[in-house]
Amino acid sequence: MRRKSCILCWGLDEKARSEIELKVRQRGLTLVEHTSISDLLNDLASIDHAVGVILGPTSTEGASDEKNDLSSVCKQRGVSICELTQQDTGPVMRDQILEFFTGFLPEKFRDLSLLAVRRISQNLIPDLQLSWEVLGDGTGVQLNDQDFLVHYEMSEEFYSGSVSLSSSYDFIRGQSELMKSMPDEAILQYFGEMGNQILGLIHFNLSQIGVDARIGLPTIVRKEALSSYRRRTPYFMPSITIGDPESRLCVRFDFLVPFLRKAKFDRSLNFEIREASDTEAVTVL
Amino acid sequence: MVRKTALVVDDFAVVRNTIRGIIEPKGIDVIEAENGRRGLELLKEMPKLPDMIFVDLNMPEMDGLQFCEHLYGEIKVPIIMVTTEIKEELKSKAKLYGVKCWVMKPITPDRIMKAVELVVRG
């Protein structure tokens, strides 16, 4: 049995396959190619860690029937499927692939991440002039343009999550009166604490579905070390990046659910996104 | 009114400053330490023990639980743990080491003052 999460594919031409393979690898996944849809269906039945299927376009009638069968199996098993309308490696294909990867992250995680960033940043830096937006699936952050990165992880037996904040000092100073004349290290302190509190709010919500993780100490990476900083992605981690529209302040979240298919996890996301009340937040021991 | 004193132990200055900003106007002077080890040193140097201690859980060098473990049985000062952690196991451990109150971040004036009232009232 393959242990690494993979994407199964069929019908891709060489150029498209090589471009897609690169994007798949960037996300810590493996692309497994098949010579026929029936082979792919067999593999899908035997691989626990198949998280998605990508199909090339085809006009033959037989293939179309097989594709319908495959679609139903994918639906039943909760495996995402992407049927390319074009494989010209142009913008249409790129958009389809991006949408495919973005779809891996459950909507609830997107909403929760956005709420956590908005609430905590407002609490710590009330005058931060920034409109937080979801910036795609998290692969677009250019660390070379940033001055710092703060990274936190939390994990338990079946679940891991992480948050990384990155930005440049001058950009931050330009967005807040509070930060305007603050030294670099003091700004870094704010963002260090922000990462911790963002993950704390996410953890509080996930604790409603039994996630009982522990948040680790931060990794703080300064400019001189940023170029050599590489994220470890040993497993498939659906991610989301939130930031300003030009990615000058980015908060990237990775949510790892090893050995658990997306649909199975989606079903368990039965919680209401909320913040702790003051009564819940203060406990006498 | 007699002013009280609090030792605030947290690795992030922004947290120490936030707690200071909330409790100083309410009559509680603040002494700051950036980790548990420094907190212990300050406690030894202080001519009079503080009336309460705020401590973070996750800190480099010496974390909040280790700090409380060192103090347990040595001094009787109410401890308030201020953290993003919510694990029951950690709360139980903290209780064993004499922590009186657990405050979940984000820090708000209401949460901090509620914790102060609870530990001052005993």
Description:
- The complex is a heterodimer of chains A (285) and B (122).
- Chain A is an alpha/beta fold and 285 residues long.
- Chain A has two domains: 97 residues, Lumazine/riboflavin synthase (Rossmann fold, 3-Layer(aba) Sandwich), CATH 3.40.50.960; 169 residues, 3-Layer(aba) Sandwich (Chemotaxis protein chec), CATH 3.40.1550.10.
- Helix content of chain A is 40%, strand content 21%.
- Chain A has ten helices and twelve strands.
- In chain A, the strands form two sheets. In chain A, strands 5, 6, 7, 8, 9, 10 and 11 form a seven-stranded antiparallel β-sheet that branches. A four-stranded parallel β-sheet of chain A has the order 2-1-3-4, sandwiched between helices.
- In chain A, helix 2 runs parallel beside helix 3 and helix 5 packs across helix 7.
- The longest helix of chain A has 23 residues.
- Chain A is globular, with a radius of gyration of 21 Å.
- The termini of chain A are far apart.
- The model of chain A has no long low-confidence stretch (mean pLDDT 83).
- By secondary structure, chain B is α/β, with parallel strands linked by helices.
- Chain B has a single domain, classed as Rossmann fold, CATH 3.40.50.2300.
- In chain B, helix 2 runs parallel beside helix 3.
- A five-stranded parallel β-sheet of chain B has the order 2-1-3-4-5, sandwiched between helices.
- The longest helix of chain B is centred in the C-terminal third of the chain and has 13 residues.
- At the A-B interface, helix 5, helix 7, strand 8, helix 10 and strand 12 of A face helix 1, helix 4, strand 5 and helix 5 of B.
- Strand 12 of chain A pairs antiparallel with strand 5 of chain B, so a sheet runs across the interface.
